[in-house]
Amino acid sequence: MAEHRSMQRAALLDAARSLLSEGGTEALTFPALAERTGLARSSVYEYFRSRAAVVEELCEVDFPVWAADVSAAMERETTAEGKVEAYVRQQLALVGDRRHRAVVAISASELDAGAREKIRAAHGGLVAMIVEALAEMGHAEPRLAAMLLQGVVDAAVRRIELGAAEEPSAITEAAVSMVLRGVRG
Q: What are the phi and psi torsion angles at 13 (to 5°)?
């Protein structure tokens, strides 16, 4: 029974990722989740009390996977500058991933305070990864530099997600170049 519930919960989360990826937060409804998973709508409520609860769980499950990918890319580098570049490149490489698209859709939505706080904490953990490399490069305020660096990454993510006129690779190269010039200075 516990295994069945776990499988159903995973199926609901997978359906939520697809819905968010395809149609944004407006598409994430309990009737749509029920339809995608073959469950009765009332059964969806047995797993999640609200849309915000689905969003919170997606963040708890998906954000650590995303952060681990970024961390692994940084760990392969031997210099602080290489770590900064890997941090930017890996986040932008993940833009096409369904998990990432779901997190972006979630971030843009109207959420309750608890869900917003979980997203903020997860993003804070991501930004914390780069602080050490920036300190190693001699930044007097590495935390502030990390927040500004993440702002460049977030802008590039939005540009890629919008399907901008530029190719994603051109956006990535521009973001990497901008960040590296900024952190060297």
A: -65, -40
Q: Is residue 178 within 8 Å of residue 159, measured between CB atoms?
A: no
Token pair for 158:
């939005």
Sign of CA dihedral 41, 26, 163, 150: negative
15 pLDDT band, cuts 50/70/90, is very high
From the centroid of its chain, how far is CA 33? Answer: 21
Q: Which residues contact 110 (CB under 8 A, 6 or more apart)?
A: 25
SS (H, E, C) 13-80: HHHHHHHHHHHCHHHCCHHHHHHHHCCCHHHHHHHCCCHHHHHHHHHHHHHHHHHHHHHHHHHCCCCH
CA 180/CA 134 separation, integer angstroms: 11
131: left (phi over 0), alpha (psi -120 to 50) or beta: alpha
In the numeric block, the tokens 């991501």 are attached to 126
Rg for the chain (alpha carbons), in Å?
Answer: 18
- Length of the chain measured in residues: 185
Fill in the amino acid letter for 22: E
pTM for the predicted model, two decimal places:
0.77
What pLDDT shows up at residue 106? 60
Helix axes 2-23, 98-107, angle to 10 degrees: 70
**Contact predicate 13/61, CB 8 Å:** yes
